[in-house]
Amino acid sequence: MKKHAIIPIFISHRGCPNNCVFCNQKKITARQGDVTPQDARRTIEEHLSTLKEMPLEAIEIAFFGGSFTGIPVEDQRSFLSIAKEYKDCGKVSAIHLSTRPDYINEEILDNLKAYGVDIIELGVQSLDPEVLRLSGRGHDADTVYRSAALIREYGFTLGIQLMIGLPGDTLEKCIFSANETVKMSPQIARLYPTVVIKDTPLYDMYLDGRYLPLSEEDAINRTKAMYEILDNAGVNIIRVGLKSSDIMADQLAFHPAFRQLVEGRIARERLQTQIERIYCKTHPDAPDFCGRAVFISNEKCYNNMFGHKGCNRQYFEKLYPHLEIKYIKDTEAGISLADNEYKVLVTGPV
Ligand code: SF4
User: What is the DSSP letter of 99?
Assistant: First the structure.
């Protein structure tokens, strides 16, 4: 059952002076026009009328899109006063927005506090100086650390968005960015493998060979490494990859079930490590992987054990042809496992 709903309002940043290589915001804005506060109110009303029958614990109004705090302050106030109205009368529980790290300072945060904003997500993308430079972000890593610290000091919930596979990025830089993110103590994070969108500098770089998009395998491996660092630190990873509805036909995007690919790979590795540990203990010279085993997860992660379209099951069948594997939920085993926690029991002769 859905407990949490977000009412997304896409505020484009018309006149954004930055030139992030992956962004086609200017083209989108030119085609779609700007959202007005009246449009925002209409969107909120429409969502509330469809959500009212649902037993939800929380409804958020979220200003996504460009850089909310980069638009003129009068415009910010027009949008925020509408959101505050709905929050004050209890129809929504939180106000959420995303922005750039260099559009954060005390004055901006005082304004957001006055309008009851709860969650600020920073589009950080990377903490590696070279990746930031090659991606045309227009700010350095120190700006990110300063803004994140200020957001936490003010008592907002901090979110960090990171991209995987921007120009100059490597697995090591991804791991570095994830570790640096943990040091900033965000409560939430999003991980986006880079999507090459037409009409962007990145697309031109791709066409003339200066940019090589990540293979799906590299994207999974890098995202998995970052996911595990953030997850182990208790950061709530609210999105991995784009929603299928966000992927347009003319984009070089990753799999619509990308999150399941990443979480499935984590499940596979955690199960394999345990099964090998068990067999190597009993047969250190030649583990034979014969017998019967039970793989266990909680209900939420049950499908991750099988992997997308059963790829993990096929993987294990091929790897351990003489091992009979049963997949069960923790409740059936009388235990309780956390998300991304997997347990292996060997029930047959080892
Ligand atoms: S991604 Fe970069 S270029 Fe695009 S709107 Fe945001 S700051 Fe501007």
Answer: E
Q: What is the DSSP string of 255-320?
A: -TTHHHHHHHHHHHHHHHHHHHHHHHHH-SS-----EEEEEEE-STTHHHHH-GGGHHHHHHHHH-
We report the CATH number of the domain holding residue 135 as: 3.20.20.70
Instruction: Name the stretches of the chain with pLDDT < 50.
Output: 29-30
Residue nearest to atom 4 of ligand 1 (CA): 23
At residue 237, what is the residue type? I
Pocket test for ligand 1, best of 11, 19, 25 (most atoms within 8 A of CB): 25
Q: Say how far apart CA 298 and CA 332 lie, in whole Å.
A: 10
Q: What is the pLDDT of residues 220-231, one digit of tens each?
A: 999 999 999 999
For 18, the domain range is 4-256
Q: Give the model confidence (pLDDT) of 187-202 as tens digits.
A: 999 999 998 988 899 9
Give the model confidence (pLDDT) of 243-261 as tens digits. 655 655 555 566 778 999 9
Query: What pLDDT shows up at residue 343?
Result: 97
322 CB burial (10 A radius; 0-12, 13-18, 19+)? exposed
Residue 170: how many other CB atoms lie within 10 Å: 14
* Phi/psi at 308 (5° precision): -60, 125
Q: What's the confidence (pLDDT) of residue 313? A: 97
- pTM higher than 0.85, yes or no? yes
Q: Is residue 308 part of a domain?
A: yes
What crossing angle do the helices spanning 106-114 and 141-153 adopt, rounded to 10°?
A: 40
How far is residue 116's CA from residue 124's CA, in Å, rounded to a whole number?
23
Verify that 47 and 68 share a domain, yes or no. Answer: yes
Ligand 1: list residues with CB < 6 Å: 13, 16, 18-20, 23, 25, 66-67, 100
